[in-house]
Design a protein that fits this description.
The chain is built from 13 helices and 24 strands. Helix 3 runs antiparallel to helix 7. It is an alpha/beta fold. It is globular, with a radius of gyration of 22 Å. A hairpin with a 7-residue loop joins strand 10 and strand 11. The longest helix is centred in the N-terminal third of the chain and has 18 residues. The protein folds into two domains: about 280 residues, 4-Layer Sandwich (Metallo-beta-lactamase, Chain A), CATH 3.60.15.10; about 180 residues, Rossmann fold (3-Layer(aba) Sandwich), CATH 3.40.50. The chain has a seven-stranded mixed β-sheet. A seven-stranded mixed β-sheet has the order 9-10-11-12-13-22-23, with helices on one face. Strands 16-15-17-14-18-21 form a six-stranded parallel β-sheet, with helices on both faces. The structure holds zinc ion (2 copies). The site of one zinc ion has 6 residues, from helix 1. One zinc ion binds next to loops.
Length: about 500
């Protein structure tokens, strides 16, 4: 079955989806779960199992030897929390392997950041028994609203109750970075992760036993965000992402990447062509737009319009009114001058079909930044239909393209791709540049080295092959685990 996925593949975040080998779950199994039973015939509340004093029990319901459906249960003596509740979108949608019957015993959910692989399961858990608070930063919760609703309207997953969804915002508990809050006997703290607006590492403490979860992390400063905050990290146990943990994952400097990027853009624009940049709506699009705006302002790129189409515009507004969570320079620039880069005169919002048609028809060169990032759907398809067969134009891909997506087919040299069964000719030039929102191997090692008192490392959110090599290296100094789905670990 062909699935429509307009903006919904935003969960890939900075373009980091990695398809794994054999599936751990039968196709469609998660989606075919029975609808929720009426309350009265649900099983009686399970008695909590006893966990040894000062121990935390971890269970990974997703993101174990895979990227996607991040969902970790952390249990203290008398408390159960879930960190992240994500889904995995690919050819088929996969969900965390947590039983619905367990959901009402969960005291709270903490969301690290607003990518669907970390928050897309929220509607399901709220519809199937979870009735506790959802903790996160303010911008994360605002972004969650947008991307979760977009996902629901496109993917229409089963077992979602409208009333539960309506209650979702009432469950939100906004917390600030570095401020410890309590969920029964667990003390929790969110620390900036540098990945997207509002992204956080999660520290969980029971007594003196500390656990740190990286979420998705970047140690590199961007035009919008400070890098992850890595001072004073202290934990015996670390759960780390490992998306780019491979030996080959060495990111070259942004400057170098951008030099090639600009040269290539200039060529196309000079010849009167249009440059199409498909982009993930949360995170990547903002970074790309800020870079482009800078280049146009400074004259490095010719003064051409930068059209912004799709969910990116809504997300930009959320970034703008949460600018306090962006880096200081950006806040100052907005505060001290009339020069607000979010409202740059170089950006032109494209709203609706008619405006899009005008952009497509216009003779002059232009840059078009639009969703979806992996070309699975969204406005980028409309642009490719009309502009894709003209070799004056150029498609610039900035993020990872998961196998099986139209983006990866095009990168592989396909001269024709199908969208919803409709074939589109690809005659334009295609190039790719890497602008990662994640830590590379060196950054991950640097982060790990900063955690004081560290003994145990759980490596998740990555491709198994890379993880094994990475784990091997880490195991010289630490006890390293590549967790198995649904298995329990006491730390
Ligand atoms: Zn992410
Ligand atoms: Zn992720």
């Amino acid at each position: 079955m062909e699935r429509k996925l307009a903006d919904a593949d935003e969960w890939y975040g900075a373009g980091t989806y990695v398809r794994m080998g054999p599936r751990t779950e039968r196709r469609g199994e998660a989606r075919q779960r029975a609808p929720p039973r009426p309350r009265e015939d649900r099983k009686p509340r399970v008695v909590r199992e006893i966990i040894k004093d000062d121990k935390l029990r971890l269970t990974f319901y997703g993101a174990a030897r895979e990227v996607g459906r991040s969902c970790i249960m952390v249990e203290g003596k008398g408390t159960k929390i879930l960190i992240d509740a994500g889904i995995k979108l690919g050819e088929v949608e996969e969900h965390p392997l947590i039983e619905d019957s367990m959901l009402r015993n969960i005291d709270a959910v903490v969301i690290s950041h607003a990518h669907l692989d970390h928050c897309g399961y929220l509607p399901h858990i709220l519809s199937n028994g979870f009735d506790g608070p959802i903790y996160s930063l303010k911008p994360t919760l605002e972004l969650v609203n947008i991307i979760v609703n977009d996902y629901l309207s496109i993917s229409k997953p089963k077992g979602i109750r409208k009333d539960a969804l309506a209650r979702m915002p009432k469950r939100y508990k906004m917390v600030e970075y570095h401020e410890e809050f309590k969920v029964k006997d667990l003390a929790i703290k969110l620390v900036p992760a540098g990945h997207i607006l509002g992204s956080a590492m999660v520290e969980v403490r029971e007594g003196d036993n500390r656990l740190l979860y990286t979420g998705d992390i970047s140690l590199r400063s961007t035009k919008l965000l400070d890098p992850a905050y890595t001072e004073y990290l202290k934990a015996e146990t670390l759960i780390t992402e490992s998306t780019y943990s491979g030996k080959e994952d060495v990111f070259i400097s942004e400057k170098q990447v951008m030099a090639d990027f600009v040269k290539s853009m200039k060529e196309t624009l000079k010849d009167g062509g249009k440059v199409i940049i498909p982009s993930f709506a949360v995170g990547k699009a903002q970074t790309v737009l800020f870079i482009l705006d800078d280049y146009v302002r400074s004259g490095v790129l010719p003064k051409v319009p930068i059209y912004v189409d799709g969910m990116i515009n809504k997300v930009m507004r959320i970034y703008r009114h949460n600018v306090i969570y962006c880096k200081d320079e950006l806040q100052k620039r907005i505060l001290m001058s009339d020069d607000d880069p979010f409202k740059s005169p170089n950006f032109h919002v494209v709203e609706g079909k008619d405006e899009r048609a005008k952009v497509i028809k216009a003779e002059e060169p232009a840059i078009i930044v639009t969703t979806s990032g992996m070309l699975k759907g969204g406005p980028v398809v409309r642009y490719l239909e009309k502009l894709g067969d003209n070799n004056m134009n150029k498609l610039i891909i900035m993020g990872y393209q998961a196998p099986g997506t139209q983006g990866s087919e095009i990168l592989g040299g396909a001269k024709e791709v199908a969208f919803d069964g409709k074939k589109v000719k690809i005659g334009l030039k295609v190039e790719t540049y890497r602008l990662p929102g994640h830590a590379d191997r060196e950054q991950l090692l640097r982060l790990i080295g900063k955690v004081q008192g560290l003994k145990n490392i759980f490596v998740i959110h990555g491709e198994e092959g890379k993880q094994k090599v990475f784990a091997e290296e880490l195991s010289r100094k630490y006890k390293v685990t590549l967790p198995v789905l649904k298995e329990h670990y006491e730390v």
